[in-house]
Amino acid sequence: MSNPKEILDPELKLYEARKNVYPKAVDGTFRRLKWVIMAITLAIYYVTPWIRWDRGPYAPNQAVLVDLANRRFFMFGIEIWPHEFYFVAGMLVMAGIGLFLVTSAVGRAWCGYSCPQTVWTDLFQHVERAIDGDRNAQFRLQDAPWGPKKIGKRLLKWSVWLFIGFWTGGAWIMYFADAPTLVVDFWTGQAAFVAYATVGVLTITTFIFGGFMREQVCIYMCPWPRIQTAMMDEKSLTVTYKDWRGEPRGSVKKAEAQPGSFGDCIDCNQCVSVCPTGIDIREGPQIGCITCALCIDACDKVMDQIGRPRGLIDYATLEDAELEKAGKPHAPILKTLFRPRTILYSTIWGTIGLAMLFAVGNRTRIDISANHDRNPVYVQLADGHVRNSYTINLRNMENRPRDMIIGMTKLNGAVMWSNAGSRETAGQTLVTKVPADSIARLRLYVAAPSAGPVREEFALTVTAADDAEAKDIDEVFFERPETGE
Amino acid sequence: MSEKKRVDEPTGTETVGHEWDGIEELDTPMPRWWLMTLYATIVWAIGYVILYPAIPMLNSASEGLLGWSSRGDYAMQVAERQKQLEPVRLALVSQDIEAIGNDPQLLQQAIEGGRSAFKVHCVQCHGSGAAGSKGYPNLNDDDWLWGGDLTAIEYTLIHGIRNPDHDKTRFSQMPAFGKDGILQSNEIQDLVSYVRLLSGREKQSAAARRGAALFETNCAVCHGPDGKGDRVQGAPNLTDAISLYGLDRATLTETITNARYGVMPRWGQRLDPATIRMLAAYVHSLGGGEKAPVAEPAVEAKVESGEDEQS
User: Fold this and answer.
1) B241 at the A interface (CB within 8 A)?
2) Residues A217, A262: one domain?
3) d(C-alpha A277, C-alpha A292), whole Å
């Protein structure tokens, strides 16, 4: 039992205060890979809304557009309507399983290279180094009293961060409206309030998340590291410090003085200096490690300088680490990659992808939805016939106006007309024009002889006039009075 | 609560002075942010009481400096909406009613306006789906007593049916053949048979043949020699499948004996012309609306002259 006074000791905090992380600049294979991935991801983010895609005169020509106002989602050749939202759900499921697959094969590669939090934090840290100098200069500046130089540097750094944050938000809104028009509207003050609000919120969140919260987002806020910890197994790649090779640590001088009693680690702390989350990889795998592999670059450089073999810190699976420790060769890489788990994930991922592609290729671009009017359920007509009315929604998902033929199945002696026509012009079918990429609503009247069942099932059909293959059907019913009095 | 308050040593905070089974409660002060919030709400409440109706008085609450009231707010919103609708109302009354259909958007606005006005003024008799009931016409069907084109519907709406205090009202009166002793009860039964024969509800019979002769002398003047009715007098078509009160023997006997006298209020004195046109457009859109006949003005003239004969 602890002494209550100890718990209440004002020096003892209930949580650990954040230690500022000022990672040192480093160069190497993985740093260059990170540069390439940062360039690609940022390019995708900023360029995508500006790609044009010709969809004809009735639809926007922006390749990727989330048109909230008109409830359409355009992605290159695919257009998604609200009722097809399951495609978006399917893409999210694929994204989730994709992360499972990546995690089980190459560990937290998402965290280390392509997570927006990582990419933007990396960008912000480059800005920080360009203005404040490298790790040691940043420490000095942090401890320096507030003077003109420090204030100037801080203001400059924060301005650049805010500027980046602003462009982050500015690019985001381009996905939701025609980009060139929105840019003009934005700068002339004509854009919607929500556009300015979104840019404002994203500017601030980017500024705070990339500039100040950084690794705390990964360690405390993000659920993904926790899920990943549970998903990794002994065959997942992860950044590993080979303690059997490195320990006990000792400087080059000591090792020269007592050959054989020290490991390869010279305790130079370079791996700690370059770590963007401020951890010591030599303590083993931990939640704070986003596997960005910058410590591998740093360590390899040191090993080169002192003439020891590279790879004291290296990507390795737990299984390989055990084998290596026992002096055995690594497991074959193919066997590590193609194991039941990864094959299962790939199969699920691929199956969903193929099913969605199949569904997208085969979905009907024409749709009828018929609702029987209930008040009144039927109307007695003067000539003894009975009339029922239906509210019809015709959906034309093609980017051109279409003539549509409404028809019906197995209702003896029935004729139909719409609110645009009259019973004199009624017939077995009805042709109506539906504008491009929209829904036409009309009231449909069906009159049939009063002799027949009280409730008779039948179906209303729609066929495109320009394509007999494009059709849809909706089951409805026809009601008659209980008894012809 | 006689226990003495004491200061809790580890925390330096006073206790509230109670003790239950050795458990004491610290009298920790409220957090400052909490108190500040409380004070802020008190200040807010004082301002609110001064500016808005708040204190209950004998008849109503205190008025408040801003003069705001929920009724006033509602009236303002209604007035605002009315102002927005003004162009539609103006467009509706500034042209011939038959021309409204030429502008699909205006027609749709009129129908929607009529739909909501119908729910306020008309559903009591005609029902929420305008399907009517016994004695109250179904407005969805294709059978009209007084005419089913826009002009005729508007006339019926404005002037009503059988308003005794109004000259231009739609008027006709069927004699109470039984009650007034015009026909004997066996004659009425013969007539019933004939009327039911007209709409195919009964087969030809001796009674129906006797009824045919009675029909020609007593009924044909209004209902027509072949029983097809006359819209000028609001005389129903007896040969079709639709009837206002019913065509079973008992109902028909009652109708012929006591006659019927259905009344509809004249809305011209209660509703503005634009709303009436909206109602006309709505009723016309329910599925039985007719196109205006070419000789429409003549029909109206006849209505007035027919009225003169009766008054």
Assistant:
1) yes
2) no
3) 10
DSSP, collapsed to helix, strand or coil, labels residue A369 as: strand
Q: What is the DSSP letter of A52?
A: B
Q: Does B131 touch chain A (CB under 8 A)?
A: yes
Q: Clarify whether residues A215 and A300 are in a common domain.
A: no
Dihedral angle, C-alpha A18, A19, A22, A26, nearest 10 ° = -100
Centroid of chain to Cα B247: 27
The tally of domains found in chain A comes to 3
Is the pLDDT reported for residue B162 higher than 60? yes
Of B11, B128, B141, the CB nearest to A375: B128
The whole-angstrom distance between residue B59's C-alpha and the CA centroid of its chain comes to: 34
Which of A2, A7, A381, A385 to substitute to test the interface with B, most B CBs within 10 Å? Answer: A381
* Mean pLDDT score, B270-292: 92
Residues of B in contact with A379 (CB under 8 A): 131, 138, 140-141, 287-288
Boundary-marking domain end, from A192, A226, A260: A226
Residue A470: give its domain's CATH number: 2.60.40.10
CB pairs under 8 A between A and B: 57
- Cα-Cα-Cα-Cα dihedral of A233, A236, A238, A242, to 10°? 80
Considering the domain architecture, whether residues A458 and A381 belong to the same structural domain is answered as yes
Nearest Cα of chain B lies from the Cα of A379 at a distance, in angstroms, of: 6
SS (H, E, C) A111-128: HHHHCHHHHHHHHHHHHH
Residues 6+ apart with CB under 8 A from A389: A372, A373, A379, A443, A444, A445, A446, B287
Q: What is the pTM assigned to this prediction?
A: 0.71
Complete domains list, chain B, with CATH: 84-168+264-310 (1.10.760.10), 185-258 (1.10.760.10)
Q: Do residue A451 and residue A377 come from a single domain?
A: yes
Report if residue A457 sits inside a domain: yes
* Contact yes or no for B129 and A379 at CB 8 A: no
Specify whether A66 is located in the same domain as A201: yes
Instruction: Rounding to the nearest 10 degrees, give the CA dihedral for residues A450, A451, A454, A455.
Output: -90
User: What value, to the nearest 5°, has the Cα angle with vertex B290 and ends B288 and B294?
Assistant: 170
Q: Report how far apart, in Å, the C-alpha atoms of B299 and of each of A355, B21, B152 are.
A: 67, 99, 9
Looking at per-residue pLDDT, the higher value among A79 and B310 belongs to A79
Alpha-carbon gap, residue A155 to A140, rounded angstroms: 17
Is A359 within the bounds of a domain?
A: no
The last residue of one of the domains, among A206, A226, A246, is: A226
Question: Under DSSP, is residue B307 helix (H, G, I), strand (E, B) or coil?
Answer: helix
Q: Using 50 as the pLDDT threshold, list the residues of chain A that sit under it.
A: 1-2, 484-485
The span from the CA of B13 to the CA of A202, in Å, is: 45
Q: Mark whether A56 and A195 lie in a shared domain.
A: yes
Share of chain B above pLDDT 90, in %: 73
Which residue from A379, A445, A485 is facing B138, i.e. has the nearest CB? A379
Domain with A414 in it = 366-479
B119 with B296: CB under 8 angstroms? no
Same domain, A212 and A243: no
Q: To the nearest whole angstrom, how far is the Cα of A293 from the nearest Cα of chain B?
A: 45
With respect to residue A247, please indicate whether it lies within any of the assigned structural domains.
yes
Evaluate the CA torsion angle B23, B28, B30, B31 in order and state its sign.
Answer: negative
> Which residues in chain B have their CB less than 8 angstroms from residue A445's CB?
287
pLDDT in tens, A49-102: 999 999 888 888 999 999 988 889 999 888 889 988 889 899 999 999 999 999
Same domain flag for A305 and A373: no
Whether residue A357 lies inside any domain: the answer is: no
Burial class (CB in 10 A: 0-12, 13-18, 19+), A282: buried
Q: How far is A458 from chain B (nearest CA, A)?
A: 21
Residue B228 touches chain A, beta carbons under 8 Å: no
